[in-house]
């Protein structure tokens, strides 16, 4: 089948490899433009761009496509059976959505219509969902509102982080898109009942609000790993919290360090045991190692 592949982050790479290995003709790979990265701030291709180069596939990196009629015409000229879209990062206009004979098929990392939007994996972990999954969807002009071709679920385990779920769904999406292309299943409209949205995340989404119960803070820490990262403040300095676990608490103002192991009071009389933390510019370490170099007296307030 003659395809275009459109994606940018590491999540998308297994699907590109699977389509290539299955023998599909990939006429073009579309990815976000290279951006400065690393200490030297050198222009660096995104993971899909690099994977396409490694496979010897042609790559296009337009900064915008929505109103670029020349880009629309170039896309239509590819004469595609389908386009596979996986976390591309740009909104496709109707001329591009309509150009491939079987449309643009999206690998979306949720069980639609729950968690439409930019950060569905983070949202599912943060909400404490028991499961999530992959939906293969034929794209329309709405935000993840197109009809569904395939869905498959996977549990979210109690200690799963966003990277844990990310890796499972990435592999699942690669497998399901091959099925969708081979089987051409009937499209089923999404129900509007139960639709929720997962907006793009910012740095402040990682801030820990100690007035919340420990279980909610634990989910936030696991959901915001590795970016934007969960954080608090210690003596006015930022402190990143990489892992923690809810523990038995006692009444104290939220954010109070309760003992000499970094047990912190949370809302509703709960507490959170900080396990792994990191100061800016320093290596991550467990709480015991951190406390050997930094005194944090019981009664200290984090926040």
Topology of helices and strands:
Layout (H helix, E strand, L loop, with lengths): L1 E6 L5 H9 L3 E6 L4 E3 L4 E3 L2 H9 L3 E2 L8 H8 L5 E5 L7 H5 L5 E5 L7 E2 L2 H8 L3 E8 L9 E8 L6 H22 L13 E2 L15 H10 L7 E4 L2 E11 L15 E3 L5 E8 L6 E2 H7 L10
Parallel strand pairs: 1-2, 1-6, 2-5, 6-7, 8-11
Antiparallel strand pairs: 3-4, 7-9, 9-10, 12-13, 13-15, 14-15, 15-16
Keywords, separated by commas or semicolons:
single chain, 303 residues, Rossmann fold, Methionyl-tRNA Fmet Formyltransferase, Chain A, domain 2, 2 domains, seven-stranded mixed β-sheet, five-stranded antiparallel β-sheet, 16 strands, elongated
Description:
With 303 residues, the protein is an alpha/beta fold. It has two domains: 2-198, 3-Layer(aba) Sandwich (Rossmann fold), CATH 3.40.50; 203-293, Methionyl-tRNA Fmet Formyltransferase, Chain A, domain 2 (Roll). The protein is built from eight helices and 16 strands. Strands 5-2-1-6-7-9-10 form a seven-stranded mixed beta sheet. Strand 1, helix 1 (13-21) and strand 2 (25-30) form a beta-alpha-beta unit. The longest helix is centred in the middle third of the chain and has 22 residues, at 162-183. The protein is elongated, with a radius of gyration of 22 Å. The model has no long low-confidence stretch (mean pLDDT 96).
